[in-house]
Amino acid sequence: MAEHSQLQFVWKQISERAQNLIAPVSFNSFIKDLEPIDIVGRKIILRAPTDIYANAVMRHHADELRNAIVKCDVGVNDFRIAVDGSDLYPLDYEEDASESFQSSPINKNFTFESFVAGAGSKFVYAAAKAVAENPGETFNPLFIYGESGLGKTHLMHAIANYISQNYPEKRVLYTTSENFLNDFIDSITQKNGAKFRFHYRNVDVLMIDDIQFLKARTQLQEEFFHTFNELFAQNKQIVLTSDRPPKEIATLEERLRTRFEGGMIVDVQPPDPETKLAILRRKAIDRKCPISDDVLEFLAKDSGHDVRTLEGRLTKVIFASKLHEEPITLDLAKLALSESVNEVNDDEEVTPDKIVNAVCGYFKQTREDLVGKGKKADIVKARQICAYLLCEMLSLPLDFIGKEVLGGRDHTTIMYARDKMAKLAKLNDKISKEIDDIKNIVLKK
């Protein structure tokens, strides 16, 4: 519990700053009578007399109040409204309880600058940039669809990074439809529905990846419907991605479909040959690994439609260069791709079991722990690295990896683990080394 004198000092600085940002009538009606009651973490807790009063603050003045808090620089960076006896604004809300809800990390490397916009993605790029520059005002909701691996998630992260950098007072929540489902189920079993609603509705930008997996469950879609309406009514930005347009999502309720179609719907097209080369060149530069055009053209040829395949080919060549301690040449690139798991000898065949066993041995985990439900940090890390390696080293469907290899998990969980480890491998030398070490174990056995 913060000391009374500290609370009063902090609130005095904030309220004086807010008075310059909010019209006098509104300030005197809704801000002046807020009572500071505690500081938890880096949030100041403000008591409001009623839910109606609290709703007015959150609907109309949350942005100005957060802006005042950020500009004051008094040790807090956000606020929470509390009302005695309220379910929506509970007084005894446990701040760390929200950690059980699964917001996903934002990759700082996924920016608009690092996105290579080709002919098939210029429009969606422009729409995403417009939303980031004016959240809640331009296109709401923004619905991005396209096949897997074309850059939808990159654009989501780019929007989040831009808003966080240019509007630090705004709260951005990025997650997946699977996490939303799991959090909703947990809120029912743990009877903390108020905290669930607070977590998802007390934001300025809600971003949900793979919305097509929003299950056809009445209660779940009912909850998302009300969350959508609450945020939309407050002009809070909503960004959704899917592998198909709203009209083709069979499990989607009609009332949600019409709301999705009421915003901007944009699709991401597969990259053309010129864009593939540009993407490979950019990723090689990002990895500080210059590669000649003839090698890049070879990697781009017959590489399919998605960007992840391109990056996978590039990763194999860079790995081969490190493994053989040779510079990257066209001959090395051909060798690296010819050594892919589909073309190795039978006695060197890479199998899911070989990868799982290598991961278990490296991290000293049992197979039961790796494929089980344990959530200890070391087990989760090993499991996610295993998912990443299964995706990168074997051409297997995500559904098969999740259900048949890693204990019956949903394919979106495998997708999340794969993408997370791919990002961390670029940023964290320790994880990059661990992945390379396990690859060596698999390929040499």
Question: Concise description?
Answer:
Helices cover about 55% and strands about 10% of the residues. The chain is an alpha/beta fold and about 450 residues long.
Distance between the ends: 58 Å
Can you give the mean pLDDT? 83
Query: If you compute it from the alpha carbons, what radius of gyration comes out, rounded to the nearest whole angstrom?
Result: 24 Å
Protein structure class:
alpha/beta
Q: What's the number of extended β-strand segments? A: 8
Portion of residues in beta strands equals 5-15%
Number of separate helices: 20
Major beta sheet summary? 5 strands, parallel
Q: What would the principal axes of the Cα set say about the shape?
A: globular
Which spans of ≥5 residues are poorly predicted at pLDDT below 50? Answer: 95-100, 341-347
Q: How do the SSEs run, as a string of H and E?
A: HHEEHHEHEHEHHEHEHEHHHHHHHHHH
Walk me through this protein's architecture:
With 445 residues, the protein is α/β, with parallel strands linked by helices. 54% of the residues lie in helices and 9% in strands. It is built from 20 helices and eight strands. The strands form two sheets. A five-stranded parallel beta sheet has the order 5-6-7-4-8, with helices on both faces. A three-stranded mixed beta sheet has the order 1-2-3. Strand 6, helix 9 (218-233) and strand 7 form a beta-alpha-beta unit. Helix 1 packs across helix 4 and helix 11 (273-286) crosses helix 12 (293-300). The longest helix is centred in the last third of the chain and has 18 residues, at 307-324. The model is unreliable at 95-100 and 341-347 (pLDDT under 50).
